[in-house]
Design brief:
The structure holds two protein chains of two kinds. Chain A is mainly beta. Chain A has two domains: 32 residues; 146 residues, no CATH class. Chain A is 14% helix and 50% strand. The longest helix of chain A is centred in the N-terminal third of the chain and has 26 residues. Chain A starts with a helix and ends with a strand. In chain B, strands 1-2-7-3-4-5-6 form a seven-stranded antiparallel β-sheet. In chain B, helix 2 packs across helix 5 and helix 4 packs across helix 5. Helices cover 34% and strands 20% of the residues of chain B. Chain B is an alpha+beta fold. The chains are: A mainly beta, B alpha+beta. At the A-B interface, strand 3, strand 4, strand 7 and strand 8 of A face strand 4 and strand 7 of B. Strand 8 of chain A pairs antiparallel with strand 7 of chain B, so a sheet runs across the interface. Chain A: It comes from Ephemerocybe angulata. Chain A: This is Signal peptidase subunit 3. Chain A: InterPro entries: SPC3.
Chain lengths: 181, 201
């Protein structure tokens, strides 16, 4: 009972139990926060060009370019257990052939409360393309701003901050061909 | 160093040694039961994984432990962080879903996956759900994962091990250290085995 081995055994058992209790307490304590930030997404224009992407240099497909304006404040989501917030703007549409599509066109990582006030006028970071390589069967898309809170310890949570419902049509493709380098 | 233990063994008899071995075996068996039971509950073949690369920084660093589930009744959504395995590559990759395309069963999905197989996919357990084509990207990478797909154009649900639900930092570093220098693994296992056999309580 008093050998070194027994002492080390007991101490390390106590240490690991306390550590696990502390981590569980941190993870559970963040369930108290139920903030739901509201924001605003507005789409200025959607243009479709027929072009190639760098990846598939020989495949001609329609690419959509979206100009948007986002304002939102995510400061109420930051607490002691928030490591970062991952924001993403996605376009959702269902084609007439029955395929439901959701694609992320812009994202940003917020790591500190000071950067949590988001006011962005920009265009899509990622290529927006359709499975069938053209947007002929695609109705107007709705755009939603979603967030994912990543904690230091615990469960990941998701939420939606803003949604813009089907106000912009996806126009037919314009001819100028753009080769991406 | 072992003379005392050897004397004690001779005193207690062979039965005692067998009892110790049985205790050891039951500890290992219950560990395995818990692991497989967790796999069944979460519907994932590997419900706890360790992050191996830095492509999801600053969210996940090398050595973090991730808890996964693989709900068969739910579709994957954009923004989910998934762990997937490409057939032909041994290491699972942890990245975030960027695009999802839900293709209803009435449309043959092989048109989009350039699959060479001639046989139609059998209507299996998840015939209620549409097929999904997914594209992923690591947060810390500039481009999406097409180069990692080894010829595939889209990921399908069958490639995905699970979706990340929870997370513990740094705990998994032990497994990375053990993989990097195998002597550590043998030393640890040997030491534990020895301790378990020698313990008298």
């Amino acid at each position: 009972m008093h050998s070194i081995f027994a002492r080390i055994n007991n101490t390390s058992a106590l240490l690991s139990s306390c550590m696990m209790a502390l981590l569980a307490a941190i993870a559970l304590s963040t369930l108290v926060f139920t903030a739901r930030p509201e924001g605003n997404v507005s789409v200025a224009s959607v243009q479709v060009y027929s072009g190639n992407t760098r990846r598939y240099a020989t495949k001609r497909q329609d690419l959509a370019f979206v100009d948007f304006n986002i304002t939102a404040d995510f400061a109420p989501l930051f607490n002691w257990n928030t490591k970062q917030i991952f924001l993403y703007l996605q376009a959702e549409y269902n084609t007439t052939t029955g395929i439901k599509n959701e694609a992320v066109i812009w994202d940003r990582i917020i790591r500190r409360k000071e950067e949590a006030n988001v006011n962005v006028i920009g265009k899509n970071k990622y290529n927006l393309r359709d499975l069938s390589t053209n947007f002929k069967n695609a109705p107007p898309a709705s755009y939603s701003l979603k967030y994912n809170i990543m904690p230091y310890v615990g469960a990941l949570t998701y939420g939606e901050a803003a949604r813009n419902l089907r106000t912009c049509c996806v126009p037919p493709a314009k001819d100028p061909c753009i080769i991406f380098v | 160093m072992f003379t005392e233990e050897l004397k004690a063994f001779r005193r207690l008899g062979f039965r005692h040694v067998l009892l110790q071995v049985l205790n050891f075996a039951s500890v290992i068996a219950s560990g395995l039961m818990i692991w497989k039971g967790l796999g069944i509950v979460t519907n994932s073949e590997s419900p706890i994984v360790v992050v191996l690369s830095g492509s999801m920084e600053p969210a996940f660093y090398r050595g973090d432990l991730l808890f996964l589930t693989n709900p068969s009744s739910e579709q994957y959504k954009t923004g989910d962080i998934t762990v997937y395995k490409i057939p032909g590559a041994e290491i699972p990759i942890v990245h975030r879903v960027m695009e999802t395309h839900d293709v209803p069963k009435s449309i043959d999905i092989r048109k989009y996956t350039k699959s060479k197989s001639k046989s139609k996919p059998q209507p299996g357990e998840d015939s209620k759900q549409d097929n999904q084509l997914l594209l992923t990207k690591g947060d810390n990478n500039y481009v999406d994962d097409i180069e990692l797909y080894q010829g595939l154009e889209w990921l399908e649900k069958k490639h995905i091990v699970g979706k990340v639900r929870g997370f513990l930092p740094y705990v998994g570093y032990v497994t990375i250290a053990m993989n990097d220098c195998p002597q550590l693994k043998y030393a640890l296992l040997g030491g534990l085995g020895l301790l378990a056999l020698i313990q008298r309580e």
